């Protein structure tokens, strides 16, 4: 879980340019650990990123954060984890958790293109 800041290029040991993505790990913390369901061998680790004002949280979420003694988070997500890879509640993730060359899964929100659909559908032209 992270926030994409942008892209840049770096030189590798052979002098080739390699495109890299810069990701900000903004206060990523373990919020909850869920036991595996019957028939499943994976635990679910709930992680939160960012920080949210207390007045922006509803009472249910506020109780959830108070129970785990973690400040309110902007976004929550769950990940399946095996038992030997469990992290304690409140553990703060950092860039040291990842190793060079490690692959990560990326998902994000797309930017809306507004009038683009009608431009393509009806052949309209944009302004200069």
- Give helix % range: 10-25%
Unreliable stretches (pLDDT < 50, length at least 5) are: none
How is the CATH topology of the domain at 26-93 named?
A: Double Stranded RNA Binding Domain
Q: What is the count of helical runs? A: 2
Mean pLDDT: 87
Largest sheet: 3 strands, antiparallel
Please report the distance between the alpha carbons of the first and last residues.
39 Å
Q: What is the ordering of alpha helices and beta strands?
A: EEEEHEH
Instruction: Let me know the number of strands.
Output: 5
What does this entry look like structurally?
- With 128 residues, the protein is of the alpha+beta class.
- It has 2 helices and 5 strands, in the order ββββαβα.
- The chain has helices at 59-68, 116-122, and strands at 3-11, 17-24, 29-34, 43-49, 75-81.
- β1 (3-11) and β2 (17-24) form a beta hairpin.
């Amino acid at each position: 879980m992270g926030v994409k800041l942008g892209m840049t290029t770096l030189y590798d040991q052979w002098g080739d340019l390699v495109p890299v993505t810069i990701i900000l790990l903004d206060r990523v913390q373990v919020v909850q650990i869920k036991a595996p369901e019957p028939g499943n061998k994976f635990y679910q680790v709930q992680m939160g990123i960012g920080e949210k004002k207390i007045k922006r949280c509803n009472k249910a979420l506020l109780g959830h954060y108070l129970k785990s003694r973690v400040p309110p988070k902007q976004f929550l997500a769950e990940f399946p984890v095996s038992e030997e890879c469990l992290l304690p509640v409140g553990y703060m993730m950092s860039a040291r958790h990842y190793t060079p060359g490690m692959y990560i899964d990326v998902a994000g929100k797309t930017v809306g293109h507004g009038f683009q659909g009608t431009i393509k559908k009806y052949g309209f032209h944009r302004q200069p």
